[in-house]
Amino acid sequence: MSAAGFDCYGSYCHEECELRHLDEIETSIRRRNSAVPSVHPSNHSNLIICAAPERSGSTWLYNAIRLLYRDCGMICDSYWIHALRKDAIEARLREAERVGGIVLVKTHEWNESYSDWLVQTFRPTIILTHRDLHGVVKSYRRVGWSHNLPANYVADHLKWK
């Protein structure tokens, strides 16, 4: 996949888009630092996963990390991926390695196989968010999604721990 293949330019973009959405500052950082080697020690992964159930603050955390890297002038390729896949992670890590960046992924989905291939293969830094269930229910109601939490909400959240 070419570098351009990772970027979303607005055409056919939708709420489930799994492409990279760079703002002007992030684009400028990529141009300026494209030949700079990674600053991460070799014993650390260049993959950060922000994982948590919906309405738990994961978008805030994801954007906070993304903007911290941006403000430091470091390349951070950030993506939302519904269900993590080994091929998708590998391709994004190759692209980030080419330019000396890190990969930041936000996801809500948990899969039992993650402990087998995700953790063992990529050794990511996994950052979880937690929100009191009362706040989650209020948030679901505020956005008009539901009056009750989905049955698997708590179980999925506990699996990430």
What does this structure look like?
A four-stranded parallel β-sheet has the order 2-3-1-4, with helices on both faces. It is an alpha/beta fold and 161 residues long. Helices cover 40% and strands 12% of the residues. It contains six helices and four strands. α3 (86-99) links the parallel β2 and β3 (102-107).
- Radius of gyration (CA) equals 16 Å
Average pLDDT across residues?
77
* Major sheet characteristics: 4 strands, parallel
Number of strands: 4
Structural class: alpha/beta
* Spatial order of the strands forming the largest sheet: 2-3-1-4
Percent of residues in beta strands? 5-15%
Q: What sequence of helices (H) and strands (E) makes up the elements?
A: HEHEHEHEHH
Helical content stands at: 40-55%
Query: pLDDT below 50 for ≥5 consecutive residues: which ranges?
Result: none
Instruction: Please report the distance between the alpha carbons of the first and last residues.
Output: 33 Å
Number of DSSP helical runs? 6
Categorize the overall geometry: globular
What's the layout of helices and strands?
Layout: H1 24-33, E1 47-51, H2 58-71, E2 76-80, H3 86-99, E3 102-107, H4 114-122, E4 125-128, H5 133-142, H6 153-160
Parallel strand pairs: 1-3, 1-4, 2-3
